[in-house]
Amino acid sequence: MNQPINQHPASFRDPSGFVYEHEGKVYRFVSTLYKEHYDKFQQSGLADELRKKQLLLPFTEVADNHTGKTDWYKTLEPQQLQFISYAWEWSFEQLKDAALATLSLCNYALQKGMILKDATPSNIQLVDGKCKLIDTLSFETYTEGQPWIAYRQFCECFLNPLLVTHYTGVDIHRLELAYPDGMPAAVASTLLPFKTKLKPIIYLHVHLQAKISGKQRSAQKQTSRKISKKNIEQILESLRSCIVSLSLPEQKTTWNNYYTETILSNEYLSEKKALVSSLLQELNYTSVLDLGANEGEFSLLCKPDAKVIATDFDSSCINNLYKKIRQEKRTNISPLVIDLTYPSPSMGWMNEERKAFFSRTKVDVCLALALIHHLAIAKNISFEQLAAFFASVCNTLIIEFVPKDDPKVKELLTWREDIFEGYNVEEFEKVFQEKFSLLNKIESVYTKRILFVYQKK
After folding, report:
1. What separation in angstroms does the CA of 250 have from each of 175, 192, 292, 362?
2. Rounded distance, CA 37 to CA 27, Å?
3. What are the extents of the domains in the chain?
4. Going residue by residue through the chain (457 aa), what tens digit of pLDDT does each one get?
5. Which of 89, 188, 231, 252 shows its CA 20 to 30 Å from the CA of 27?
6. Which CATH class is domain 1-249?
7. CA separation, residue 57 to residues 46, 87, 232, 407, 420 (Å)
């Protein structure tokens, strides 16, 4: 008798198959409708090549049909992922790498007589330090003369937001959140400066597409146009060369130089790094959430075999951290752009396709360093709310209390009335002991800031 399965709420649009959970593992159902394409995917050597190139999430075939469906062809067991992120949580360089990986996937597929039918960031995840395709059913047999069906989707999901950020400086994660299914060419064309119309590649892929999308074309004209394999390869190369040239505009914020120009002292930073490193060594953990991570100074102190999610609302900081771990080949850290007071919401059909950030995030250890005053004073969030929040996401909490006479707190209070009579360490400890047991308490030698180590009750 087949055991019940839980079909993933985002996996319902493709008749070729779907993702489901069974007995704590994630599997992919492959329908008989996809048999021809799947067999070619395997027999052509494309699957093996993409695995070797680290562009495809590894998977194995299993003999069981957990679903009981009569149109079953294969069951795939992919490498199990602890955490899924979305494009509206990525920095510029993360989306750029995902775009380049998608183009490479399509190019390799063409060489094996197949083509990529989907080109969305939802199909890409950063796994073991590499951008990998997680949707095994994204390929279909290529027919000579047919266009790349995912071309418009690629431009809307990848190229257009990258271009707008490159030329305007608008945070890319905000663009992705505003246009989760991709930014239309007409929107991108309006936002881009006039000078981009003089650049042939941008004119071709954005401004011309915006003009075309505004005109009525007969179905016959759309279907009769023949595009050769060489034409598609030229399109892929032009997209690649354009994206490679793009970068995040240089900008200095309050946060991306926090530990160089705005921090109290180098001695304080060195002391805190040593203390946090020592505390982490004493703990047994496999997962960490670093909230307000800045450029990852403390994420980098975590054990290399622990999965670390490093978040900050400053996209420039996260972009710098991503570039750093990419250069150093650190594979255990996932940098994400997250505003704790406006975290990623549940999205999609019935608000179930894409889970909210904190619905996806449960960890052993949470780091909250130089953070609490921003939440309690800048955002008026009470200690009771904060204690309940931290207890909902972690078992062990390393949190830094910043007193009211600290220069950073005084700075926060410069332009507002001090209505925070209860903001003191005594009240902080009183409230947090309702949810946590105190393991350690260390006051800084150079400041009055205090590190607390808590265990959830």
Report:
1. 18, 18, 21, 34
2. 19
3. 1-249, 258-456
4. 456 789 999 998 899 999 999 999 999 999 999 999 999 999 999 999 999 999 999 999 999 999 999 999 999 999 999 999 999 999 999 999 999 999 999 999 999 999 999 999 999 999 999 999 999 999 999 999 999 999 999 999 999 999 999 999 999 999 999 999 999 999 999 999 999 999 999 999 999 999 988 665 544 444 457 899 999 999 999 999 999 999 999 876 555 555 555 445 678 889 999 999 999 999 999 999 999 999 999 999 999 999 999 999 999 999 999 999 999 999 999 999 999 999 999 999 999 999 999 999 999 999 999 999 999 999 999 999 999 999 999 999 999 999 999 998 999 999 888 999 999 999 999 999 999 999 999 999 888 899 999 999 9
5. 89
6. mainly alpha
7. 13, 18, 25, 48, 50
Q: Tell me whether strands 307-312 and 287-291 are parallel, antiparallel or unpaired.
A: parallel
CA distance 348 to 86: 12
Question: pTM for this one?
Answer: 0.92
User: Do the bridges between strand 124-127 and strand 139-141 make them parallel or antiparallel, or are there none, so unpaired?
Assistant: unpaired
Residues whose CB is less than 8 angstroms from the CB of residue 272 and which lie 6 or more positions away in sequence, other chains included? 369, 400, 444, 451
Tokens standing for residue 20: 């489901």
**Nearest one of 256, 243, 260, 412 to 337, comparing CA atoms:** 256
Tokens, residue 24: 């704590």
The reply to whether CATH 3.40.50.10420 applies to domain 258-456 is no
Structure tokens at 322: 């991503």
